[in-house]
TrEMBL record:
Keyword field contains Metal-binding: yes
A Pfam short name: IMS
Name listed for the protein in its UniProt record: RanBP2-type domain-containing protein
Domain (RanBP2-type) ranges: 506-536
InterPro entries linked: DNA/RNA_pol_sf (IPR043502), DNA_pol_Y-fam_lit_finger_sf (IPR036775), DNA_polymerase_eta (IPR052230), Rev_trsase/Diguanyl_cyclase (IPR043128), UmuC (IPR001126), Znf_RanBP2 (IPR001876), Znf_RanBP2_sf (IPR036443)
Listed GO MF terms: damaged DNA binding; DNA-directed DNA polymerase activity; zinc ion binding
GO cellular component: nucleus; replication fork; site of double-strand break
Amino acid sequence: MPSSRLIALLDLDCFYAQCESVRLDIPSHLPVAVFQWSGAIAVNYPARAAGIKRFMKLEDMKKVASDIVAIHVEVETLSSAFIEEAGDEDVRKSKYKKQYSLTCEEKALAFSRENGHFPSRTSAQANIERYRYVSGLIFSRLRIFLDEVVGQGGYKLEKASIDELYVDLTEYVNKSRESTPPPLTGKVVIIGGDKNWTDDAQCLMAANLVSRLREDIKTTLGYTLSAGLAINKTMAKLAAGRGKPDGLAVLPRSSEAMKVALETTSVLEVRGYGGKGGKIVCENVLKFRGYNGPWEGDEYEEECKKLSMKMCGDCPADVLGSKHDWRLMNNGEEGEEVQHTKPGAPTKSITTFKSFVGDKESCHRKDDVKSKLGAWIEMMVKSLVRRVLDDSKRNNRWCKTLCVYFCNDVKAVKSKSTKFPGKSAQGKEESVTKFFIKTLEESTVWPIIRVGVSADNFFPLGAGLGIFLSKENEAGVTKPTDFKTTKVAKVVEKSTLFATVPPKSLAGICWNCKACTYENEADAKVCEICKTSRSVEDDEEYAKRLQKQFNDEEAEGVAIGVGVGVGEKRKAKKAKTVKDFFGS
DNA sequence: CATTTTGACGCT
DNA sequence: AGCGTCAA
């Protein structure tokens, strides 16, 4: 299977809990929970072993683990906000560096001061900057390791979230001449069992690299991570779940192993299918399979959970697509297409939020906005502008859009956006604050219990984006990155692995079959999947897509003020259904 | 059951 | 531009 990709997903184990364990030097056998107000947002594995879960309260934890370590996330308080100068990232960097390099005595002191002591949510906002810092450190270290071992350009690294990233190792394994890679170290799980571990030397090489990489992060920075290795991002993510904690799970590139994965994975476990959309897929599949209920209690949910990826793949596309255009398919040709790893991928938005609980705290009418929320708004605006300035320094970009969010109920979020003040504009905080207050005062929903503000739509100010930390960071990264914006983001994405909606990014390069929703090659006369003939309407829509894409690219080129070529256009590849893995 | 504070992205 | 969905 020489043309298949090899993608690894790396996932830091219970990340915030690890950060605190490292920062405060907490013995590894102790159960640790990181709290945000009264509920835990991260728990380590000893705690999980005792039955402790996310959102559990401290009293309940103590019942099952009396030695529980309870650390609260960092907060910004209303009273002591922001002594640091806006835009001085170095000040904050040294602040966080200091947090993680305490002496033994300082650690012990901080531990006793913090363990079990929670701040008041009525005068503070939770802030995860402490963990963003570690995330940056780890990602930077990963790049150093990969540059050393694989070589610059020989891999692609995409940040997926604060504690997750993808590494595309296809190029590395294709180029390498290494004949007998050293054996794997650490915990390794082979999905489908050892018997499915073929003599795939390239996959073994990639697995070996991931093992070493995990080891490197553990020895240099003291953090453990789990990893999944597979032919694409979705399967890598799935595999990583099997490797937890502190292990590597490989989905070998054999159809036998793929069969096992498809049969043993509930479709609800697949990224993107945990919510309403996944439920709709399940509903349709259940109907197709002749299960109509009536269902008692949790029966329905249980049936949904039992639906494997294979079962979904066995359904015709139109059964799944009745409402949401869902299609179940494996990657394109050779089972390898799709979801290209986006190199770098710096964050696309910066947001800050604060929720208020109880009637006393919430904002009931226009008059309450300034009196009750004024101080919060000021704090959040300062925090946002400061982070945007830091980001600007690091990534040499600025944002176009300012968006204010508020809601009276978790399900009814309202938002209003406007132009973000320019980088050199005077009084950025003041103008943002003004818009924030005005937007809330004009609210049609009361009481307001949650407010937030975000900066989005970043555009480059010049060449050379740094991605994780700026150049002289603690991990010693000095190389500028060669990441280029826009083009990469525009061209790369087509998500087609198991069950996806045809992505918008394909507009202009395919025609979309009405019968089965498949995105066909631009010049195909009949649908490659269901053989339906291309109609006049299809032609018209295709022409419209072409025009739209053309317009979009023109607009993009002007907006960022640099010469943007059309670039490489991704070709739609022939889809291979899950069924193909099972013959017939 | 939902909790909070993030973040990405799709639809109209 | 505004709202909805999904995830951790």
